[in-house]
Amino acid sequence: MAFKNLRIYLSAISAIIKKDIKIFFAYPINAVFRIIEPIMWITPVYFLSKSFQINGENIGFGQYSGTTDYMAFLVIGTVVSSFVSSVLWGMGFSLKEEKDSGVIESNWLTPIPLWVQLIGRSIFSLIITTINSLTVALLIWTFFGFNINNNIIHAIITLIPLLIALYGLGFGIASLVLITSNANQIIDITNFSLNILCGQDFPITVLPRVITAISLAIPLTYGYDAIRGLLLGTNTLFPIKTELLILTIFMIIGIFLGRYILKKVERHCKTIGNIGFH
Amino acid sequence: MKRSPIITAILSVFKKELKIFLRYPSWFIAMLIWPIIFPFGYLFTAKALSGTDGQSLAAFSNISGTSDYISFMLIGTTMWMIMNTMLWSFGTSLRTEQIRGTLESNWLCPVPKITILLGHSLWEIFFNIIFLTITAIEFKLVYNFKFIGSPLLSFLIIIISIPSIYGIGFIFASLVMWQKETNSMVFLVRGIMSVFCGITYPLAVLPNWMGNISKVIPLTHSISALRSVISTGATLADIKSQIYYLIFSGIILMALGFLAFNFTQRKVKESGSLGHF
Q1: Which residues in chain B have their CB less than 8 angstroms from residue A203's CB?
Q2: How many CB atoms lie within 10 A of CB A22?
Q3: Staple A195 to which of A200, A220, B13, B123, CB 3.0 to 4.6 Å?
Q4: Which residues of chain A have a CB within 8 Å of the CB of B191?
């Protein structure tokens, strides 16, 4: 029975991926911009870092982080953030799009659980994000230059529990979108706040103490920190093994809690009948 | 006396936008949150880049002419936020109606179609006045923003910047109606602004060719004039070249905006793609 369900779920996920591929290539400019946009975000920060340089090095930044190679620090933060964004937008915004296009109710009538549909929506987004991240990193390396060490496999292993945990967060965001019908703002604010609180662009030790406490309470912070520690040898908040343990616990709790909340909200929406409202 | 149908149409669009805004109370919360969180990342990046011994901050001060990087960035990011809101708003105004299937019925109304965008502009101006007021209060409370120069002159700079910003908005809305891909269009235009206009960094760090492009963009002049007035107390005489440029570019961009809209309107009617998405 479980195997049969799995087969059905996989077939639904593959249908969703096929649909997403079709939509993606129907709007070719959007596809190109997935690569150009991160470079456009990074370029002003590159010039900002340049305005603080002494003899071509970010000496001041090194006093906080343990590396003077700010571009490498920034690129790693941007790559991790693009995965966070991919899951949040891929899951949360898909519901809003389905509402706007008037297909959400028919999709919910299929015998595929909502969480499976959401996973399906995020997969193509993750594939594209991976391709984009590699391309963007290569382009930035060509334009601006940066150095990382050989711990790439370890960094990828660290990224895996982080990504799985993000699905829990994605379920939570999707639930909020269902309740409030205002996907753009919710996802944008959550995504942006997470990125800055977890240290996408700077070490969280520069934050005021109260905000540092909030950052430390968000497990994603340890993902950014551990990956940078592995690839750049930056000063980490805790030993990398401890940070990995925190990420693993976050992964287990996040995924179950997220799914539980989504199930409750799904039921609530079906009961009050606001699924198609927007 | 009977009201002109053009005014009625403009006010109807304004009313519709206001109604939609009030329908989603979380937009108001977003309006409160964005002015705090958007500059946050840049400010703490600057703090991290400053280091602990002040040498790197001195390097920044030499290039930018100020060590107050907080005011420097708050002014740049506020103007960018206004531009960004305008792009999304204009870009999605017609596009959302295309998706929801209401654009064609609106197009059938016996009023000039540009009134739809003019109504939208009126709403945008109203929205931005509220947004700027909230932003100024929050900057003072959260970031201890220092306002040295004349608030009236700063307001004048913003008013003079409106035609160029909205001219870009009109061109932008036309492009989106034609090309359909709102997101990419927003990313392109706002990306160009953030790369070239010195929102978070002094323009002196740009290579020459980039510096030349940045001088053509009106937003660069708005930000530079506002920084001079707010942070160093510059007078009207000190910023007159920027004011002239903003007036000149405003006239050109507004005219281009009207032309682009009329051209696109004709084009989508001919191709029958007005309702396509």
Answers
A1: 48
A2: 9
A3: A200
A4: 36-37, 40-41
Distance between CA A215 and CA A212 in Å, rounded? 5
Lowest mean pLDDT among A2-16, A19-33, A221-235: A19-33
Structural Rg of chain B based on CA atoms: 20
Q: What is the mean pLDDT of residues B125-137?
A: 89
**Position B35 in a domain:** yes
* Contact between chains at A36 and B56 (C-beta distance less than 8 A): no
Q: Which domain holds residue A68?
A: 2-272
Residue A47: predicted pLDDT: 93
Given an 8 Å threshold on Cβ–Cβ distance, is A30 in contact with B183? yes
Q: Report A:161-190 residues touching B (Cβ under 8 A).
A: 180-182, 185-186, 188-189
- Cα B272 from chain centre: 31
pLDDT tens-digit map of A37-85: 778 888 898 999 999 999 888 999 999 988 899 989 998 998 888 888 8
* Residue B277 lies inside a defined structural domain of this protein: no
Q: How far is A271 from chain B (nearest CA, A)?
A: 22
CA distance A180 to chain B (A): 8
Q: For residue B243, is it within any domain?
A: yes
pLDDT in tens, B197-212: 999 899 999 999 999 9
CB pair distance less than 8 Å for A196 and B41: yes
Residues of chain B found within 8 Å of residue A59, distances taken between Cβ atoms: 51, 55-56
What residue has token string 């010039």?
A: A47
Question: Chain A residues with CB inside 8 Å of B37's CB?
Answer: 189, 192-193, 196
The pLDDT assigned to B237 comes to 93
Count of domains in chain A?
1
What mean pLDDT comes out for the span A151-156? 83
Looking at the DSSP bridge assignments, the partners of residue A190 are none
Q: Give the B window 39-58 contacts with A, CB below 8 Å.
A: 40-42, 44-53, 55-57
Q: Does B198 map to a domain?
A: yes
pLDDT of A151 reads: 77
A278 lies in a domain?
no
Would you say residue A174 lies in a domain?
A: yes
What range does the domain containing B74 cover? 5-271
Residue B79 makes CB contacts below 8 A (sequence gap 6+) with B161, B197, B199, B219, B222, B223, B226
Cβ-based neighbour number of residue B269 at 10 Å: 12
Model pTM?
A: 0.80
Out of A189, A200, A206, name the one closest to residue B47 (CB): A206
Higher pLDDT, A1 or A252: A252
- Please tell me the total count of domains within chain B: 1
Question: Is A44 inside a domain boundary?
Answer: yes
Rounded Cα–Cα distance for residues A104 and B69 (Å): 47
Q: How many residues does chain A have?
A: 278
Whether A185 sits inside 8 A of B30 (CB atoms) is yes
Instruction: Inform me whether the pLDDT recorded for A1 exceeds 60.
Output: no
ipTM over 0.85: no
